[in-house]
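User:
Hi there, any thoughts?
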Amino acid sequence: MRKTDEIDSASLVEIMLGNKNLSDFFIDIDSFESIKQALGVSLQEIQFAKYTTETEKKELTEKKIEESELKKLQELEKKQLEKNEANKQYILKVTKGKEDEYQKIIKGKEKTAAEIRVALFELRGTKAIPFGQALIYAQQVSKQTGVRPAFLLGIIAEESNLGENVGTGNWIDDMHPERDRPIFKVIATTLGFDPDKMPVSKKPWYGWGGAMGPAQFIPSTWVYYGGYEYNKNTETWYYDQSKDTIRKLVGTSGPSSPWEPEDAFMASGILLHDNGAAKGGYDNERLAALRYLAGWKNATKPAYSFYGDDVMALATKYQGLIKILGTEKK
């Protein structure tokens, strides 16, 4: 580098006075120019390698977190299996080994436990919704969209219990400034709400917040189903009642609201249908759930797999609960 600087700063007069050979001088220039180009390439390769290493490090960290969570889930499952087996052995002992008596007791306990869970069931981020009412909403949505009720309940339960994403944020701090804030303000105004007083989700570690209501719709997604259009001439959003798909399917007269449970269930069902959930089956529903969270582009990324697994576990639980209570629609 010092030699390169020396060559760059030398004038032709200095070369002649210094008794330097002119042809050797130009050979030096060519040689050092080649060296500089090679150094430039090497620096680019180093930068790329650094970027790759940082990306791999981030993915490794995320994988470790996922593995840690999975291990905890496996431990909980093991404990539950051990507890169930202990209960079975105790009941068999009390009933002197009569399996039919054991089955009667188990069914009675399941029925009682199901009724207790129904009484305690709440969906956070909105008014408390009894399980029976939530199931009615889910079954109504299923008739319109083909999305399985238990799966829809799994989505709503997961969305409304996501820790940071339960409605403790505000639209100024947590919402994407260009994509969502202008739309949110129009949605709130159309519904007669003060945007500063409406609950939205806080900004999570992986992106922007600002999701609304029990189904946790961001404003820029709600517009596709809630009847909002963009005027290119005035560069503003406005509500068009004729484009409000949610309102039409629910059968209400006013604008659909992301904070209204029935509207939220319907909006969620429409989006899940568009994501492929109506095809049915574990894989299609799980993929639809991941698209619900991360969009189509990011749905297959391992970092988001926990969400799909959680939703399907909840769907399985609610399907069992529906069956036990005898409220499954044929």
